[in-house]
Specification:
With about 475 residues, the chain is of the alpha+beta class. It contains 11 helices and 21 strands. The chain binds guanosine-5'-triphosphate and magnesium ion.
């Protein structure tokens, strides 16, 4: 973002003084662009807010901020009530002090002159250089001057405390100060996750490979239902998780786009450990998509939740499942039921989701709540709402746009924000990617935790005598 000498903590401090969420763009740097007034003006004129930072060889870092343009037409003082001078470091140690402009001196905040470098105050409080200078052994002896406390309130600091008593610098930089927008990554993530390393990926994989549902309940596998609009990425999520454990990108479940749901069968997919082929202790249950009409209906879903629907059952809107159909599982056990529901929502269509579909989802939620089944939302295709995620999903939790969508969906579905998990499925990739793996394994981990919550609740409800038998 900056490519200059300014350290992160100093950037943070300056942003705090300036206010708002800021980004800095390096405009000018004397060691690169030459220490000359024409060079400074050609790079920095009319760029809006800027901050000028000087680096003394003994590690003192100081300078000035202005919210006004630098210009080189004539010689003018520019008024700027927002301007300030500052010290960030003194002899290498952090010692941030802001020197605000004196109220009666606003008119003389900066001095613009084609033959001057950045110049602050009427004194001038800080005049960096005039004309053109060269470095000697990496040090520029600036030919400006410091007449401190004339326009800016130095709070008792003298030239020595401000700049070691000299204007020698090994660098001077000018940054343009801009407003961050929703697409600029945050410094700290909007949701905390462990550090994304290969090791984390391995740990998550192992945790999920070793996952077992509560032993007391004697269920071999946890069942997770994937449900959502057609084309949301339900089958792709299974494919993604399956790929991670297989060790290469597979597309066992049919995925793609079609007018009606591409998935027509109810499938309770196994995920297998690649080398051993051993199935993991959960199943991802893939369904036909929700549609305004023709899709999977409320009754279908209730049968699935309760475990009546057999694997490979073909959804037929004209002839829905009923107890009269031979394959109907008449007396399902806890092991046949759904233990966690995962709503799959396409982030790129969240803004245009129809009220009818939302109504359907809310109705389904009533049935789920009656059964105490925990619900999670997988927000898929986040690469479509923020392009750079196509190449690097490790940014996911640093992008305000993604957070905004998560918040929006949480409100829409009526779930806590922490229940909405952004993911990007494998779709165009031909090889596994550590970060896509981590993103989806984190989702899978949370889903399994939720399923466990359901099973624990179930355990609490059971008669202790039954359990002892
Ligand atoms: N860019 C992008 N595309 C995705 C992602 N997930 C799925 N897709 C694409 O979206 C399309 C639909 O995905 P499916 O997994 O078939 O969706 P589905 O929910 O199973 O749809 P139906 O079975 O038709 O109800 C496919 O073309 C996928 O490649 C994602 O995270 N990012
Ligand atoms: Mg599908």
């Amino acid at each position: 973002m900056m490519a200059g000498l300014l350290q992160k903590e100093d950037f943070n401090q300056l942003s705090k003084w300036i206010g708002g969420r800021r980004k800095f763009l390096l405009l000018y740097k004397i060691s690169r662009d030459g220490c000359s007034a024409p060079s400074f003006h050609s790079k920095c004129d009319n760029k809006g807010m800027t901050v000028t930072v000087l680096y003394n060889p003994s590690g003192t870092v100081y300078g000035g901020f202005t919210a006004q343009n630098w210009t080189s037409v004539g010689t003018v003082y520019v008024s700027d009530p927002k301007a300030f001078m500052f010290t960030l470091k003194y002899n290498g140690k952090s010692s941030p002090v802001e020197f605000p402009i004196k109220p009666e001196k606003h008119a003389n905040a900066i001095y613009c002159n084609a033959t001057y470098g950045p110049t602050f105050g009427g004194g001038h409080d800080l005049s960096t250089f005039t004309g053109t200078l060269t470095a000697s052994i990496g040090v520029f002896a600036l030919n400006g001057s410091c007449n401190l406390d004339y326009t800016y309130n130095m709070k008792g600091n003298d030239f020595k405390a401000f700049a070691n008593g000299n204007l020698q610098v090994n660098e001077l930089e000018v940054y343009q100060v801009d407003e961050c927008d929703m697409n600029d990554p945050l410094d700290t993530p909007w949701r905390k996750t462990p550090e994304w390393t290969t090791r984390l990926m391995q740990e998550l994989k192992e945790e999920i490979e070793n996952y077992k549902p509560l032993e007391e309940l004697k269920i071999p596998q946890t069942r997770i239902l994937l449900i959502g609009q057609i084309g949301a990425g339900k089958s792709s999520f299974f494919n993604t998780v399956n790929s991670i454990f297989r060790g290469y990108v597979t597309s066992q479940a049919c995925s793609g786009t079609a007018e009606h749901s591409l998935t027509t069968q109810y499938r309770t997919y196994q995920v297998r450990n690649g080398p051993s082929g051993r199935p993991l202790n959960f199943r991802l249950c893939d369904t036909r998509g929700l549609e305004e009409s023709q899709g999977i209906e409320a009754q279908d879903v209730c049968y699935i939740l309760d475990g009546h629907t057999p694997d490979k059952y073909v959804f037929n809107p004209a002839l829905p499942l009923s107890p009269d159909v031979p394959a109907f599982i008449k007396s399902p056990k806890l092991r046949d039921q759904i233990h966690c529901v995962t709503f799959v929502l396409d982030a790129s269509t969240v803004d245009v989701i129809s009220e009818k579909i939302l109504e359907k989802i809310r109705k389904l939620q009533v049935s789920m709540n009656q059964r105490g089944i925990p619900q999670i939302v997988l927000l898929t295709k986040i690469d479509k709402i923020y392009k750079p995620l196509e190449d690097d999903v490790s940014l996911t939790y640093f992008i305000p746009t993604v957070q905004e969508y998560v918040d929006k969906v949480a409100a829409m579905i009526g779930l806590p924000r922490s229940h909405v998990i952004p993911v990007k499925n494998y779709e165009n990739e031909r090889e596994l990617d550590n970060n896509i793996n981590i993103l989806n394994l984190l989702a899978m981990q949370q889903i399994l935790h939720f399923a466990d919550d359901f099973l624990y609740n179930h355990l609490d409800d059971l008669d202790p005598e039954i359990l002892e038998k």
